[in-house]
Amino acid sequence: MDTSQLLKGVLDAAVLAVVEADDGYGYDVVRRLRQAGLEGVGDASVYGTLRRLYSAGALSSYVVPSEEGPHRKYYGINDHGRRLLADQRKAWTSFAETVQHLLDPAEPLESAR
Predict the structure, then answer these.
(1) pLDDT digits over 32-78, tens only?
(2) pTM of the full structure
(3) How far is C-alpha 76 from the geometric centre of its chain's CA atoms?
(4) Contact 10, 92 (CB under 8 A)
(5) CA 29 to CA 18: how far, in whole Å?
(6) What are phi and psi of 73, to 5 degrees?
(7) Which fold has domain 4-112?
């Protein structure tokens, strides 16, 4: 299955979850997503997602000087981002349960219990 379309739908939640665990700069977030199993995530997609989430007020940012190269812009989740991530977690859980039930009708829906 080509998971690239699935990834597009959950990239915001994945990025928020990564920076919830620890602030990170662009490539660090990419690396952590890939280490978590999202090997197909593109650099440009993550950088764009970070900028969009920042513009939407879900992330804060700060610059850390570097003696070995350009300064790094770090992103961290804020209260708005935490609320957004909580909503996305609920939506993902419901969606995943529904799809799992469709794929395996013997699997009961958690929400139906």
Answers:
(1) 999 999 999 999 999 999 999 999 999 999 999 988 889 999 999 99
(2) 0.87
(3) 12
(4) yes
(5) 7
(6) -95, 115
(7) Arc Repressor Mutant, subunit A (1.10.10)
Tracing tokens 């919830």 back to the chain, one arrives at 20
Give which of 94, 69, 88, 65 is closest to 14, Cα–Cα. Answer: 88
Paired tokens of 29 = 């977030």
Cα(31)–Cα(52) distance, integer angstroms: 19
The answer to whether the CB of 70 falls within 8 A of the CB of 55 is no
Phi, psi of 23 (to 5 degrees): -55, 155
For residue 97, the one-letter residue type is E
What DSSP character marks residue 62?
E
Domain boundaries, the chain: 4-112
